Amino acid sequence: MASPKRVSSVPSRVRRIDQARTMFIQTETTPNEDSLKFIPGVPVMGEGTAEFLDTKSALKSPLAIRLMGIEGVTGVFYGPDFVTVSKDSETPWSVIKPEVYAMLMEHFSSGEPLFRSEEDRESAGPQDTRILDTDSETVAMIKELLETRVRPAIMEDGGDIEYRNFTDEGIVQLKLKGSCRGCSSSTVTLKSGIERMLMHYIPEVKGVQEVLDQEEEIALSEFEKLEQRLAKEHGHEKKDSR
């Protein structure tokens, strides 16, 4: 009579701890000093991208809502195999990085889904380069180039682009995401890289323009007003000290 097989029952918590010990999360700098690319060594989105700039949008993803809760973090971006975390300029990475490491380690070793539902996942990722029946031949070519040539290169730097519009004047309007958002070199990326390539392959394209969402325009306007007010106050202080 064959002896019964022994079934090893390792508690799931022990397995998770063991997985966390073997997980090695790499970081890569980006052109934006306030954004870091974290590479957990396992698929993140697999396909597509998703970006979270506030707690409301981050509610779709348990990991994003935890990362957005770290003091100083201003944005979370999911790529196919990486997570880009952006922060404000006042908080040093030495304060933020340990918390990000711990949360990424915990999430990816737990097997917890990235999104609360499949619907949340589908709505979080951009559908901007999907070619539609209503697209003109020019727009279809623009979308194909953005998807196959531009997007992979920008993702190397922890960011992404989103197609918004092709105007009657021949201007391609794009939104920058992830580490590209607010980056000082983003203008160079748009003009020297994307614009030059699109104009080379598609004669109808006359230029490329960055666009902002309404909330971003309001935030930028308020920030500029604050900078002007601080500059005036600083000027008055100088006069008073004379």
Please, could you describe this protein's structure?
By secondary structure, this protein is an alpha+beta fold. Helices cover 45% and strands 18% of the residues. The protein has 8 helices and 8 strands, in the order H-E-E-E-H-H-E-E-H-H-H-E-E-H-E-H. Strands 1-2-5-4-3 form a 5-stranded antiparallel beta sheet. A 3-stranded mixed beta sheet has the order 6-7-8, with helices on one face. Helix 7 links the parallel strand 7 and strand 8. Helix 1 crosses helix 4. The longest helix is centred in the C-terminal third of the chain and has 28 residues. The N terminus is likely disordered.
Key features?
242 residues; alpha+beta; five-stranded antiparallel sheet; three-stranded mixed sheet; 8 helices; 8 strands; globular; disordered N terminus
Topology:
Blueprint: H1 12-22, E1 26-29, E2 35-39, E3 50-52, H2 55-58, H3 62-68, E4 73-78, E5 83-87, H4 93-110, H5 118-124, H6 137-155, E6 159-166, E7 171-178, H7 186-201, E8 207-210, H8 214-241
Parallel strand pairs: 7-8
Antiparallel strand pairs: 1-2, 2-5, 3-4, 4-5, 6-7
Q: How do the strands of the widest beta sheet line up side by side?
A: 1-2-5-4-3
- Secondary-structure element series: HEEEHHEEHHHEEHEH
The fraction of residues assigned to DSSP E strands is 15-25%
Count of runs of 4 or more consecutive helical residues: 8
- Tally the beta strands: 8
Shape: globular
The whole-number mean of residue pLDDT values reads 79
Structural class: alpha+beta
- Rg, rounded, reads 22 Å
Helical percent range?
Answer: 40-55%
Give the end-to-end Cα distance, rounded to a whole number of Å: 102 Å
- Major sheet details: 5 strands, antiparallel
Low-confidence stretches: 1-21, 216-220
